[in-house]
Amino acid sequence: MRAVGVDLGGTKTAVAVVAPDGTMGEVLTAPTPALAGGEAVLDAVADLVARAAAGHDDGAGVGVGPAGVVDAPRGAIISATETFASWVGTDVAAGLRARLGWGDARLVEVRNDVDAHALGEAWLGAGRGRSSVLMVAVGTGVGGAVVLDGRLWTGAHHVAGEMGHIPTPGAAGMRCPCGVDGHLEAVAAGPAIERAYALAAGESLPGRDIMARAADGGEPARGVVAAAAVALGRAIAGVVTVLDPACVVIGGGVAAAGDEWWTPLRAACRGEVVPVLRNLELLPAALGPEAAILGAARTVFDEARVRVR
Known about the structure:
- It comes from Tessaracoccus lapidicaptus.
- This is Glucokinase.
- Belongs to the ROK (NagC/XylR) family.
- Pfam families: ROK.
- This protein is an alpha/beta fold.
- The chain has 2 domains: 2-115 and 289-308, ATPase, nucleotide binding domain (Nucleotidyltransferase, domain 5, 2-Layer Sandwich); 130-284, ATPase, nucleotide binding domain (Nucleotidyltransferase, domain 5), CATH 3.30.420.
- It is built from 9 helices and 12 strands.
- The chain has helices at residues 38-53, 92-100, 113-124, 185-188, 190-201, 207-215, 221-243, 259-272, 290-308, and strands at residues 2-8, 12-18, 28-31, 59-66, 69-71, 76-79, 107-110, 132-138, 142-148, 151-152, 247-251, 282-284.
- The strands form 3 sheets. Strands 3-2-1-4-7 form a 5-stranded mixed beta sheet, sandwiched between helices. A 5-stranded mixed beta sheet has the order 10-9-8-11-12, with helices on both faces. The chain has a two-stranded antiparallel ribbon with strand order 5-6.
- Helix 8 (259-272) links the parallel strand 11 (247-251) and strand 12.
- The chain is globular.
- The two termini are 16 Å apart.
- The mean pLDDT is 93.
């Protein structure tokens, strides 16, 4: 039994066939037509899945990790930012099933992209063997997910773990991509770091260059990066105080930074929590871009096992 895992990003879609032990086949990629609307996106995904699944008659189905808030039982998008045009309301599961011509024997499972990352890291990555994992993803946005005993906990409204939308001191008056002012994403995500640097330095630089200047000790880059890390660390402290996870796994493009980001983040988190939580591990994600493919495929394996019982 194999499953196709899909990492459906705003820029690129990547798919691969995954075995139950996590062994991956060739990764196929294609640009995501995110601004062309939900139907165009599903056309592109279905084409990749069909190519990846060709010749695998033992396929159990496909797991998809798209951006946006996902109603997992329905497999539909119920909330999203402007990264994808006409994405809210898209029935990903039904749309792919129709395009692929699959009957009910094959599963189509849909989870949020960060949820898929979290499942991959909890299964085979930095959170492997832990009873619970809080996943935090920091890149273009700030996302999060909670894995308990190997399974996602998405909450009553499908938004459990959504770190980016925590009201945050220092973010007052700053507009979050969700449309509400004052959220963590407005100060801690990659674009927020770029905006803060442009204001402080009077010049615009891409995030990787800001990180490089911060690593060299240059100001204002170092201060800007540290401020974003502190905001994230304090937010993580609040969440871990409520959830008490076995570990926190942090991934995404911003998390690829060095000590100039990680050191203030860890210090801010540990400075805010009660003593018993100060040794909580804050771990860099281990699987890179493969995590979402693996995690999406894992949802198919999990659901297949449930159906057998």
